From TrEMBL:
It is an enzyme of class 3 (hydrolase). InterPro entries: FA58C (IPR000421), Fn3_assoc_repeat (IPR026876), Galactose-bd-like_sf (IPR008979), GH (IPR017853), Glyco_hydro_29 (IPR000933), Glyco_hydro_29_N (IPR057739). The keyword Hydrolase applies. This is alpha-L-fucosidase. It comes from Xanthocytophaga agilis. Residues 1-23 form the signal peptide. One of its GO terms (molecular function) is alpha-L-fucosidase activity. Pfam families: Alpha_L_fucos, F5_F8_type_C, Fn3_assoc. GO terms for biological process: fucose metabolic process; glycoside catabolic process. Residues 541-694 form the F5/8 type C domain.
C-alpha cells in the first residue's frame, strides 16, 4: 500500500479499534476457527456409502471380496449430486475406501481397487466422477478414508502408516478442494490382511500418529475440517450414536486431550477447553450400505423431521447417508424421502413471523443502538443483540402487530464470539397471561424449538444464565404445518398387534390384509388378535379436527412366538426377548461361562431360514451387544447343527435389528451363542429375538 494511503487510513483504523475496545463484547473462548465456522454454516450435507461390500450384501467387507464383483453398470454420480442438491444439501462425503480396503479410485499404491475390475476395463475413477459432479452442482466434496484396512497385508505394522498417508495424499491432492475428511475409528480386529486371515488389534491413539497425519492433511488442504472418532481430538466430534440425534444440551466444546465418554460426545462439555462441534451422522435406511431387504425401511418423513430438529435444531450439522445400489444409483425411494424431507423443511420455515414484530429489551449493551434487540430479528446475519458486560440474565420481548399463531422458534448465537448461553426460558402472552412454552439449556450456532401451536401477542425470551454477557444474532418464529406420525406397530408374544400413536389427538386405523388403511374403517381401540401365523399389518394416524392422515406404517410378522419357551434361563425376565417390545431387554447370566447361549424351544417343528436379533436399546448398555455369534438348530435339544456364524458388523454404532439368513431347515430348538460382546466379558443383552420361516 502506498505510504500516503496508509497514513490516511490509520486514524480510521484506530477509531474502529477504540470503538471495539469500548463496546464490542470480548470473545469468550474456546472459539471456532474459520474452517469450523464455514463448515457449521453448511448445516446439511450427504454421506454416500458404496463399495465392494455393496455386492456382497454386507455391512463391512472382510477384505477378500473379489474385485470382479464390482459392476455398477448404470452408475451416474450426477444423479447422486442432483438428488443432494435438490434435497438442499451443501456437500457430499464419499466412502473412497471403507474397511474392506477396496479403493474407489485407481490408487497407485494397491491393486485392490477399481483399476482391477473388468467393468470399464479398469479405467474408472469413481472419486473423480463424483468430485466432478459435485463441482457441476455447486456442492462441496469430502472423503471417507477408513484407517482400518482389512485387505492390506501390512495393517498393524508401521509400513501401513506410510501406505495410509500415501493414499491420503492422493485423495487430498488430485481431486480439488476437499471440505471434510472422515477417519472412522471402527476396528473389529479380524480381516483378510493379504491372506493372513487373522485378528489384528492396534491402539488407535498411537498407531496412526494422528498429529503427523493431521499436519499432512492441513498442509494439503488448508480449508479442511477433520472428523475422527478414534484417536487424537479433531475439528469435529461424533455425537456418540448413529441414530440421528445429539443431546438436547449441546456444547460445541470438549477437553482438548484425554478420553471422552459417550455422554461427553453426546452433550459436549460446558467447560471444555477446545472447540469441537458435533456432527450427527445417520443413514436414510437402517444400515449404511445398500441391502435390498431395507427397501421398505427407508426413514419416513416424521422420522427425518425428528432427525432435523435433533441435529441442526440442536447446534449440530446433519450428515445424512444414501446407500448406493449395486447398479450404481440411489434408490428412488431414498430419493423421494430426501426430496419430501426438503419440501417439508421449506414449508415449515416458509414465513418468518418476526417480520412485522418489534423486539425490545431492557438490557442493551451500553444503550448502543448497534446492539439493540432489533438486531436479533433483522436480516443481517452478522448483527446481534448484545447485553451489558457482566450480565448473565436478560430478557428480550417480541411484540406482534396482531395475535399470531406459532409453533417453532429459531435462536442463534454469534459463535465467533464463543458459545455462551447456559439456560433460557420462552414464554408467550396468550389472552393477557404469560404461558411458559419452553425451558431449555444451550443455544450455540442454531437451536430450533418445537412446541404445540400457541396464539400470542408477545413472545418473551429470557436468558437465565450464560458464561458471559449473552448475545443473540438471530431469532425467528414460524408456524409449521402439522405432520402426523405413522403409528408404531408391534406384536407381543401372544400374537396381539399393538399400535402406538405419536400424539394424543390422533385416531388410529389399520388393516391386516395388505390393503390401504382408511379413516373410519377398522379403528384401533385395543390390541388386535392375529391368528398366530404370519401377519402383514398396515396402519395410519388420522387427526379428526384437521382431517389429515399420516403416511401408512407397515410391519410384517413371521410366526407368532406364543408357544416359545426359553430353556437357557429360569428368569421370567428372559421372556422380554419375545415380548415384542424393543424397549425391554434381558441380559444373560454374568457368571455363566463364555460363550453364552440363548436356547429356545419353539413348541413345535418349524421350517426356518433365518433369524433376527435386536440388541438392548438402552443407550448405556452397549457393552452387552453381541458382535460375533453362532446360530444353531436342533430337532431334539441334544444334537445341534450350526446354520450360521459370523459378525454383526457395525452393530455397536448402529444397534438396530440384525438379520441373518441360511439354507432352509426344519427344527424345533434354536440356540444363539454369543461368541463376543462389545465389552468382552459382559453378559449378552437382547431386546428381541425373532425368526424367519419359509
Ligand atoms: C461406522 C462404520 O463402521 C460404518 O460402516 C459406517 O461407515 C459409519 C458411517 O461409521 O463407524
Amino acid at each position: 500500500m502506498p505510504k500516503f494511503l496508509f497514513s490516511m487510513l490509520w486514524p480510521c483504523l484506530l477509531a474502529g479499534f477504540c470503538c471495539f475496545s469500548q463496546s464490542t463484547p470480548q470473545p469468550i473462548g474456546p472459539l471456532p476457527n474459520e474452517n469450523q465456522v464455514r463448515w457449521q454454516k453448511m448445516e446439511y450435507y450427504a454421506f454416500i456409502h458404496f463399495s465392494i461390500n455393496t455386492y456382497t450384501d454386507m455391512a463391512w467387507g472382510f477384505g477378500n471380496e473379489d474385485p470382479r464383483l464390482f459392476n455398477p453398470e448404470k452408475i451416474d454420480c450426477r444423479q447422486w449430486a442432483r438428488i443432494c442438491k435438490q434435497a438442499g444439501m451443501k456437500g457430499i462425503i464419499f466412502t473412497a475406501k471403507h474397511h474392506s480396503g477396496f479403493c474407489l479410485w485407481p490408487s497407485q499404491y494397491t491393486e485392490y481397487s477399481v483399476k482391477n475390475v473388468p467393468w470399464q476395463n479398469g479405467k474408472a475413477d469413481i472419486v473423480r466422477q463424483l468430485a466432478n459432479a459435485c463441482k457441476e452442482y455447486g456442492l462441496k466434496f469430502g472423503v471417507y478414508l477408513s484407517p482400518w484396512d482389512r485387505n492390506h497385508p501390512d495393517y498393524g505394522k508401521p509400513e501401513y502408516i506410510t501406505y495410509f498417508r500415501n493414499q491420503l495424499t492422493e485423495l487430498l491432492t488430485n481431486y480439488g478442494e476437499i471440505f471434510e475428511v472422515w477417519f472412522d475409528g471402527a476396528n473389529g480386529g479380524d480381516g483378510y490382511y493379504g491372506g493372513a486371515n487373522e485378528t489384528r488389534k492396534i491402539d488407535a491413539r498411537t498407531y496412526y500418529d494422528w498429529p503427523a497425519t493431521y499436519k499432512l492433511v492441513r498442509k494439503l488442504q488448508p480449508k479442511i475440517v477433520i472428523w475422527n472418532d478414534g484417536g487424537e481430538r479433531a475439528d469435529l466430534r461424533w455425537v456418540g450414536t448413529e441414530a440421528g440425534y445429539v443431546g438436547q444440551t449441546n456444547w460445541s466444546l470438549l477437553p482438548a486431550t484425554g478420553d471422552v465418554s459417550e455422554k461427553m460426545l453426546h452433550h459436549g462439555v460446558e467447560d471444555g477447553n477446545a472447540w469441537v462441534p458435533g456432527e450427527v451422522n445417520t443413514s436414510i435406511r437402517p444400515e449404511w450400505f445398500y441391502h435390498p431387504r431395507e427397501d421398505k425401511k427407508v426413514k419416513t418423513l416424521p422420522e427425518l423431521m425428528d432427525i432435523y430438529y435433533h441435529s441442526i435444531g440442536r447446534n449440530a450439522t446433519l450428515l445424512l447417508n444414501f446407500p448406493v445400489m449395486p447398479n450404481g444409483l440411489i434408490h428412488e425411494k431414498d430419493q423421494k424421502a430426501a426430496l419430501d424431507f426438503a419440501q417439508a423443511i421449506k414449508e415449515a420455515f416458509a414465513v418468518n413471523l418476526t417480520g412485522k414484530a418489534q423486539a425490545k429489551s431492557t438490557n442493551i449493551r451500553e444503550n448502543n443502538p448497534a446492539f439493540d434487540a432489533s438486531k436479533a430479528i433483522d436480516t443481517d446475519p452478522e448483527s446481534y443483540w448484545a447485553t451489558n458486560e457482566k450480565t448473565t440474565h436478560a430478557p428480550l420481548t417480541l411484540t406482534f402487530s396482531q395475535p399470531t399463531a406459532f409453533n417453532r422458534l429459531i435462536l442463534q448465537e454469534p459463535i465467533a464470539l464463543g458459545q455462551r448461553v447456559k439456560s433460557f426460558v420462552v414464554e408467550a402472552l396468550v389472552n393477557g397471561q404469560w404461558k411458559e412454552i419452553a425451558k431449555e439449556t444451550t443455544i450455540g450456532y442454531k437451536r430450533i424449538l418445537r412446541f404445540p401451536t400457541v396464539e400470542a401477542t408477545q413472545l418473551k425470551l429470557t436468558i437465565d444464565d450464560a458464561k458471559a454477557c449473552p448475545l443473540i444474532s438471530n431469532l425467528e418464529v414460524y408456524k409449521a404445518p402439522l405432520i402426523l406420525t405413522p403409528p408404531i406397530i408391534t406384536r407381543d408374544q401372544m400374537g396381539n398387534v399393538h399400535l402406538r400413536a405419536g400424539d394424543s389427538e390422533s385416531e388410529l386405523y389399520y388393516t391386516l390384509d395388505g390393503s390401504k388403511p382408511m379413516p373410519g374403517k377398522n379403528k384401533y381401540t385395543t390390541p388386535v388378535k392375529t391368528n398366530g401365523g404370519k401377519a402383514a399389518v398396515k396402519a395410519i394416524a388420522y387427526n379428526p379436527s384437521t382431517k389429515q392422515s399420516s403416511l401408512a406404517s407397515e410391519e410384517r410378522f413371521d410366526i407368532a412366538r406364543t408357544a416359545w419357551k426359553i430353556l437357557s434361563s429360569d428368569a421370567q425376565q428372559a421372556y422380554q426377548v419375545v415380548d415384542g417390545n424393543p424397549a425391554t431387554s434381558w441380559h444373560g447370566d454374568k457368571s455363566a461361562q463364555r460363550p453364552a447361549d440363548l436356547v429356545i424351544d419353539l413348541g413345535k417343528e418349524e421350517y426356518l431360514q433365518g433369524f433376527s436379533y435386536l440388541p438392548d436399546q438402552n443407550w448405556w448398555a452397549d457393552a452387552s451387544i453381541i458382535t460375533r455369534y453362532q446360530f444353531e438348530v436342533s430337532a431334539d435339544n441334544k444334537s445341534w447343527k450350526r446354520v450360521s456364524e459370523g459378525e454383526f458388523s457395525n452393530i455397536r454404532n448402529n444397534p438396530f435389528w440384525q438379520t441373518k439368513t441360511f439354507e432352509p431347515i426344519k427344527a424345533r430348538y434354536i440356540r444363539l451363542r454369543a461368541l463376543k460382546t462389545v465389552g468382552e466379558g459382559s453378559a449378552p443383552g437382547y431386546a428381541e429375538i425373532d425368526l424367519i420361516t419359509r
